[in-house]
């Protein structure tokens, strides 16, 4: 009867399978005697591959949190061009004819930002045609939607087209949680995880804990959704969300726009959260209707009436943080870490105390975090205020629309003209400067002099935007970036200060105003940017990868484990922060995302050697000096397996699986750290590496490069199927011959033990499909 009632509502291919999900939810409710559930739990557990098997004899979900691995069936997959290459190269090795769930490819990361949309797009297509053609061929062959260069940024397109309340999706990009702004559970993963979903293999996730964020009050004046998350990042730090899904609730949610909620969820990646989401709201319905998905809104209304799309009364959160939106002050986060949050009123003081640059050198707005109609109309309204006073930006000002739909709508409504008349450069609908594709003309990459940029982006690791390690990226709202470009002075606070005009009079901005959604509706824009709606697989399409290509290389399966203890040498002891940008740099290296051997030349080039204080420098046994990848290549050729030692939150940042593939390709066996970022740890396991943490953090100090590090009891551990996590002892032998044992900890599930045993998750999936 439930299925009939869902069917009576017209649904489309982007409507989540509510009937099945509600049936699963009811089954869980029966098995747990109606235990109150959070929204995240409802969505996640309704996507279980087998509810009864997972719950077993348990009559509560609570003990699962942070403990039990869940096998989930996501509804769809989205991939961006840089990570899609490796995901698809891996998919090809499975020899399947089509994907098991709907998927989309988005060409956004490989587009440079320099001269503006037209020229940048042309030159980026010319430079990357081999890759775009490869992705397009894969899309045609396997029936995947292909969003070509210029169509927009993955997360904006997902929000406009695919995200829906109660959906579960995987995306090969760490800001996939953006879709949680429309009530989906959307998780950033590596390509190998995406391949799980694409092949219909249940995808494994350790049941997250739930962090409730209660929003009260209402945003006003200069405060914006961005400030909610920059403020929260300040409270929680880059590690505070690790192992959690962040679920927002409270009456403060009611006044947020759907795209504002997406901004907040987007940057949940910066606190390490598995994902973030909001409960179904009237703002979601408005957004679904304005993006021409009223059938999804109707179906969601129905699902809500069955208790699927909200948290239950009495739902238990593992932790609750409360934010009063009425009291929220805009903040500026950075430099070099997204959690260093300074309220704008304190920023001038912080600049002096920290000796940050006194001038701002550029302002950039847009990116997947902040390129909604609301963001852009609020920023443009400030531009209009300044233009009306005869003011011009004092520093270069760049605007990146998130999608063709946003761009065309902004153009129709005069917003693009407002920006361009003021002298801003409107870049193509792509990632551009957010991912190091900023061909910056005013400051050289090698410049040692620090400079500050203000952006509305989400990430600010060193060298992230312009490839220059001395550029300090301060993250803030688009509104604040826009006001700051008219001053160029870090000591200016637009909330309280004035700008001096040429005639000597003072101008003070009024707080920005804008519109959540376009009154005249969205305009699709140029049709050539839209894919075939329901693509069908065409097995006749040939995928051609030239053996001469330096961009693409077909994959060879990694070798299986030989059943013995691992005996390695420590190649590098890393000090401090080591993000995926340090392990596999972006920027110019994006070019080699589809060529494992070539991109391996950037492995850990950003890492700081604890023993020498040098970046990208290591020493061989005879003390000869090497770059880190060069020594790894050398040891690989000598058949000498290695280990890297590092500190906390190793692999924080993005879902970049290259950060796991490259070490594996170069002969790495073990990564031993004080703690891991979740996605990276999973990625290492998927590629057949052994990720371990120190049971006693102090043991980090006892190990040096070139020490021999051996496992003790690995075959027994594998034979026991990993025991669902536990201790694996390690024997350390110093060059002097002295040796001792330290305990390491692993978190491998039974399946993940098989990844290790078979050499990689793909080898294992292949084995399962063949048997
Ligand atoms: Fe692209 Fe930057 Fe977002 S790289 S996907 S705009 S975080």
Please describe the topology of this protein.
Blueprint: H1 2-7, H2 18-31, H3 39-46, H4 51-55, E1 69-72, E2 76-80, H5 81-94, E3 103-106, H6 117-142, E4 145-147, H7 154-161, E5 168-171, E6 185-188, H8 191-198, E7 203-206, E8 209-216, H9 225-236, E9 244-249, H10 258-266, E10 275-277, H11 282-290, H12 294-305, E11 319-324, E12 331-333, E13 341-343, H13 344-354, E14 360-366, H14 373-388, E15 397-400, H15 404-412, H16 415-422, E16 425-426, E17 451-455, E18 471-475, H17 478-485, E19 499-500, E20 506-507, E21 567-573, H18 580-583, H19 596-599, E22 618-619, E23 625-626, H20 628-637, E24 642-646, H21 658-665, E25 668-673, H22 678-686, E26 690-694, E27 708-712, H23 714-719, E28 726-733, E29 739-746, H24 750-758, H25 761-770
Parallel strand pairs: 2-3, 2-5, 3-4, 5-6, 8-9, 8-11, 9-10, 14-15, 14-17, 15-16, 17-18, 21-24, 24-25, 25-26
Antiparallel strand pairs: 1-7, 12-13, 19-20, 21-27, 22-23, 26-29, 27-28, 28-29
Helix pairs in contact: 2-3, 5-6, 5-8, 9-10, 11-12, 14-16, 14-17, 21-22, 24-25
Bound molecules: FE3-S4 cluster.
Give structural attributes.
771 residues; alpha/beta; Aconitase, domain 3; Aconitase, domain 4; 3 domains; seven-stranded mixed barrel; five-stranded parallel β-sheet; 25 helices; binds FE3-S4 cluster; metal ion binding; lyase; Aconitase/IPM_isomerase; iron-sulfur; 4 iron, 4 sulfur cluster binding
